[in-house]
Amino acid sequence: MNNFDYKNPTKIIFGKGEISKIASEIPENSKVLMLYGGGSIKKNGIYEQVISALKDFDCVEFGGIPANPEYSVLMDALAVIKEQKIDFLLAVGGGSVIDGTKFLSSAALFEGDNPWDILDKKIATQKGMPFGTVLTLPATGSEMNSGAVITRKETKQKLVMGGPGLFPVFSILDPSVVASIPERQIANGLADSFTHVLEQYMTYPIEANLQDRFAESIMQTIIEVAPRILKDPSDYKAAANFMWSCTMALNGLIQKGVPTDWAIHMMGHELTALFGIDHARTLAILTGPHYNYNFENKKAKLAQYAERVWNVDGSLEEKAKAGIQKTTEFFNSIGIQTKLSEYTSDFEGTGKEVARRLAERGMNGLGEYGKLAPEDAQKIVESAY
Ligand code: NZQ
Ligand code: ZN
Predict the structure, then answer these.
(1) Among the four residues 32, 191, 236, 301, which has the most C-beta atoms within 10 Å?
(2) Quick check: pTM over 0.90?
(3) For residue 151, which atom of ligand 1 is closest to its CA?
(4) Looking at ligand 1, which residue's alpha carbon is closest to its atom 17?
């Protein structure tokens, strides 16, 4: 096992009816900016619950943060933070609203001239404005990690940021919110969280037995609840398992002491930036091609995964191949297509463009060995057409 430090300061408040606890988690006399997305919270009762919990606070609202949180919209919110002298942020939404809030947490205390530098120059945030979250969509794990992904439409960029100062102070996880999520977004949450586990697991064996089994159990739980939650999102028991699995998939725990990959995400972000394909779907498009391309390096873990998660038998090579096949079948079973051409007819040249973009950003060595060059990414994307 590799050496590691582990600290996750986010307080999780989990369960039915827990949104009312926001009030006791926000410091008294805070001036709060409540941030939300396109308005789903006004149709499913979450807005009313939050407003009622915040009744004793001086609170300003900012709605309209779009999926794939957009820099220009966030700059409008930053102006509100400054004008209104806000000192606590509350994100009410999915990964996009939470990530947008993380950007604002960082930008609000940023001392440079141009907040875009936080993303473009990869400036790690050591201290941000404190913020809490009310999670409305299980998927990204953003509610318990310190990373964010921000989009800039103008330049077709989707860039990552983060730092130890960007953990939420608290996150409220009430699985009842899942009842109103449309099927497409539930499928996205299942695929995104599943791939988060894969990115931290499908590398090479180093006898980190506990981390392996944590990862396998999260994937087994997601596979188990997927048909139930798709059939009936108001199935609270299934929703609770779905929500907690998504959080545990990317709160830092399973990646400690093990090599991690993340190439699927880095290539996937480019597909979202280029075509607007939902984040989770870009991952489903690239997972099979990435594992086929890197088969020799990954076959030991692929075989272990196939055997333990999918109960596959056979030789090492047979199991490893079956592991890739089962993963593609899983994505298809939740209604997610796995070919780029099923999302856009404009796919010619995408491999080359993704490679160009990665090289431009100095991402010349992706993957657990840091050796996956832009030319390799090109071939992987091309085999995903
Ligand atoms: O905007 P509203 O109207 O609220 O509607 C949202 C949005 O249209 C809707 N929704 C959310 N909760 C709902 C609901 N609809 C009905 N009932 C509810 N309870 O769902 C739509 C999608 O929301 P979004 O927040 O975009 O989805 P998700 O949570 O999948 O987040 C995706 C973003 O997170 C980034 C992705 O790149 C993408 O930008 N990621 C963030 C990560 C992180 N911070 O750790 C890691 C991930 O790998 C990922 O990259
Ligand atoms: Zn993801």
Answers:
(1) 191
(2) yes
(3) 39
(4) 181
